Known about the structure:
The complex is a heterotrimer.
Chain A: H1 2-12, H2 22-32, E1 38-41, E2 44-47, E3 50-52, E4 57-60, E5 64-67, E6 75-77, E7 83-85, E8 88-90, E9 101-105, E10 111-113, E11 116-118, E12 122-127, E13 133-135, E14 138-140, E15 178-184, E16 187-189, E17 192-194, E18 198-206, E19 209-211, E20 214-216, E21 220-225, E22 231-233, E23 236-238, E24 243-250, E25 253-255, E26 258-260, E27 268-276, E28 278-281, E29 284-286, E30 290-295, E31 300-303, E32 306-308, E33 312-316, E34 324-326, E35 329-331, E36 335-339, E37 356-357, E38 375-378, H3 398-409, E39 417-420
Parallel strand pairs in A: 1-4, 2-5, 3-6, 4-7, 5-8, 6-9, 7-10, 8-11, 9-12, 10-13, 11-14, 12-15, 13-16, 14-17, 15-18, 16-19, 17-20, 18-21, 19-22, 20-23, 21-24, 22-25, 23-26, 24-27, 25-28, 26-29, 27-30, 28-31, 29-32, 30-33, 31-34, 32-35, 33-36, 35-37
Antiparallel strand pairs in A: 38-39
Chain B: H1 10-25, H2 29-43, H3 53-83, H4 88-91, H5 98-118, H6 122-129, H7 132-158, H8 162-187, H9 191-195, H10 197-205, H11 208-220, H12 232-239, H13 241-266
Helix pairs in contact in B: 1-5, 2-3, 2-5, 3-7, 3-8, 3-11, 5-7, 5-13, 7-8, 7-11, 7-13, 10-12, 11-13
Chain C: E1 2-11, E2 14-24, E3 28-34, H1 40-47, E4 55-60, E5 63-64, H2 69-74, E6 76-79, H3 91-101, H4 108-115, H5 131-143, E7 149-153, H6 161-176, E8 180-184, H7 188-191, E9 197-202, E10 205-210, H8 215-218
Helix pairs in contact in C: 3-4, 4-5
Amino acid sequence: MKFPLNLLSGLLGTTIVFGGSAGDDLRARLAGATPGERIVVQPGVYEGPFTIEKPVHLLGEPGAILQGDHQTYIIAVRSADVEIAGFTLRGSGRALGKDDAAIHITGARAIIRDNRILDSLHGIYVRRADDCRIAENTIIGDGISSDRVADPTLSPLKPGEAELCDVDSLQDRRGNGIHLWNSRGHVIEGNHIEGTRDGIYFSFADATMVRRNTIVQVRYGLHYMYSDDNTFEENTFSGNGAGSALMYSKGIVLRRNRFHANRSHRAYGILFQSVDNTIVEGNEIDGNTLGFYLENSNDVVVRDNRIVRNYVGLRVSDSTSGSTFVGNRFSGNVHAVETTGFNQANRWSAEGRGNYWEGALSLDLNRDGVGDVPHRESDLFGQWRRTFPEIGLLSAAPGERLLRFVHSRIALPGVPGITDPHPLLATKDTP
Amino acid sequence: MNSAVAIPAFADVAGAALRREWVSHRLNRFLHAHLLLILAAGLLPLLTPDGGLASGAAWWLLHAVLYAVSLSALLLGLSSAHAESEEFVWLLGQPAGIGPWLAGKVFGLIALAGGSALLLGLPVTLMGGGSGALLLAAIGAAEVASLCALIGLAIGFWVRDSVRGLIAAIAMWLLLLFGVDLLLLATAGAPWVQQNPDLWVAALMFNPLDAYRVTILFAVENSAFGSLQAGRLTAWWIAHAGLWLGLATLTGGVLAWVASWCGARRRLDG
Amino acid sequence: MILALDLRKSFGKRRVLTGLTLEVQPGAVTLVVGANGAGKTTALRLIAGLSRPDAGTVSIAGRDLARQRRDALAMLSFLPQAPRFHPRLTVRQTTEFYARLRGRPLAQVPVALDEWGVREFEDVPTGKLSGGLRQRLALAIFALPDAPVLLLDEPGLSLDPVWRERLQQFLHKQAARGRTVLVATHLLGEWEGRVDRCLLVEEGRVSGELPPDRLRESFPELGGTEFSRARLQTCA
Lengths: 431, 270, 236
């Protein structure tokens, strides 16, 4: 009986089931599979949920849809070495407390690739499972909601699973694109995440490589804490309500990423809160409300980044120390640098090279590409921001610009800001 | 015989003055400079690297308006007033009076200065970078340019000598551009100001260049105002920056119109 | 008719008009003469509504200038001394503008320009006109409203003798049409025997009349600041 049915369904290009649903059929195939078996799923709608408890390769042909029941996960990976590829998944449950997700993984070394996930709480949830590879998936949420985004520096993000139970409203019952908890060693690459609550959520997730992902129109592009030794390369975080926040972690590398147009009233291109021993290099931090904010973060190397067209390019609190800023380009920012004092605990040049500052005096008598006089980047509002917040209305005012220009040429006493002893001149090599 | 002498209607005189304003400015070098500036400023966003055409255009417009268009519009208004100086004795003796003539002149200047400022957004729009935000920025630029032209007109009517008038106009521009900001920056730390921040904010609100800057920064560019703890007036302004710019420039325009009228009347006894 | 009663005007501490009274009847050409600084131009500016008197009243063709300003000014055409125009506008543009301001049909513009010999310059910016041409343009504009009361301040300056002659003919023609014509001038020789009445302004008031046919004889030193009161033929 099965052979003629398969033949007919193959001819029609869809799954035909007599007596049971397509989902039952797939569940039966999963139950009967041998470890390492390739299960190719033909086009059609397969009603979930499904649980994979063997190391199998579940491969969907174009048009294969795994349909959730809106009660729980769509597919749960409970075995190591499982591969899920090529499916459209839709209709997971929406219970934040139950970790409902389109794909819920507790088995190590899972490979999740080339799937399209819609209408779900979390897209891919990894819980206590190491060394997963999540690649080339598209995860589409219900749409951005940047309302009532809390400032993580004022009401800190909370680690762990319970954090997401604190939803702002029923309308905001959205999960994360990729949620990693208490695991390590993953590779996350080439995914597109849009309209979820947060893009990629890291909590106690270490030693992971994240590269070439695009995360747009979510709340936090990167919601990250208590996670060490991770590398982010060539990702794009754009148009997110609150930008990307990294907290209480160390040993991170951010390289050649783009943090772009994160512009709500509380948005950061990148926020570092208590992030130590980290390298930030070659990134483009462009058009954000606050480009890069370092709070209580030590020994961070910030080099060769383009920090351009932000309302505030760089905010460095005085609690940040031992960090080095070198080779960065600051241009087109309303305020290039904000600081609460004179920021003498950080270095603004290394080995005779500082940063490129738009509008700096370009005196270079020996033509070595390094300015001959230090550049003072003042923050005229520094002392008044807290006592007289209206001062912010003078941002980019010609009078303020004039004073700043004068200060960059002639040191006015008592004006907060930073001094770059070796400012760079613009060259073709300037980032 | 006497009853045959007609007094033309307000609209007819205003229309004649408007037409004259338009015709006379076609050869006005200040208008040519103004248009060249606008053309250059409108093209500058096209040089924005990395495809930032749409996002960067309003920022360019802000700088063009603050540092160039405002001054050229002011000088346009000044030259408009001074060009009439030879003819005041004719103009003021007309039965229709100063009012309709000045009305036509004011609307002519608004059409010229404001209309040309609208063109700031044209190159970007033609290159596919048009947006609602750019339109708002261009409308704001037109409002500010119109007001500056009327301020220049008033200065020209009050300061009749061409050299002194030029000095007065540039002094006014520097006051609007730098003076208000520096004064407010200098007073920001004063305890009295910190206890009455709304007065400080109000002074800033009524400066058209500051109103335009705040509109571009916080309404067009959506730059986040970093201090949400600021007072209610600030919050209202940030939320209604475009509306306020319209109201402020309208109010300023009416005041400049009245000042122009008084300045022109002053000629009667000169 | 022009009626000015007890006009007084001071600029700062300088009293320019000290109670000037004059009555100018229609159908005649009336001259106002006086030394530099005597108050002629100020008096004309007050009558033309360009300046406000400190005291006194002006009536133009029965309309009180203070209370019925628009109506009074509608009855009047005033030619100021040494008129100048918007330098970038052409002769025609300038004349058309004033035609509109006085509610006159534009068809009359070429007629007026023809009459004063400036039509061939109609496309020339007024800033490029010679003094004589500019004065003739001013006369064309002055004539456009066809007003019942004509007020002229030194109209013959810059004109050559031919056009000065035509100006006088024009004014006599207007007087013959019943217009009221009042001319302030220094050029007594031009007007001697060709004026119906001549008022002398001295120290801010009308101090008498001169015989129209013996103007030069009465004022051999006119143009200076000194007068020979002995030669005056007083009104009284």
